[in-house]
Amino acid sequence: MSEPNKYRLQESLGYQLSIASRLQERRLDEGLKPLGLTRITWCILLAVGNEDLLRPSEIAEFVGIDRTATSRALRKMEGDGMIARRGGTDDRRKKAVDLTDLGLDLLQRGTPLAQDNNTQTERNLDMNERAELYRLLSLIRTGDDLALSRL
Fold it and tell me: What is the DSSP letter of 91?
């Protein structure tokens, strides 16, 4: 009698992607934690400070999380003094986000940590392999517009 077709966890793409992602996330989390940052707050600092995104909806789309998670993170960041929110120019109900001096300092201090983490993640790949991996990951994400509640 033949054995039923078995699902091999460690041979699955999802498992391999998950493990690689969790290793990268853990290193980043450990680097950001002493700064009082999480991956989400780090990504928001990048969105505002490096990409000049001011509206919560733009920030949510850039980070790849839903609006509720973005609003929650922005409230905490404002309370922690990393960002300031102000009324929009056209509609006072719309808020714009700016980095405070603390937010700018955290962005500058976190950048080398994130760069080192990327170097660690990519260390076993040559330039062509990195380019191919980015291309393949982009293909995997194509058509998935699901916003996440957390990173």
Answer: -
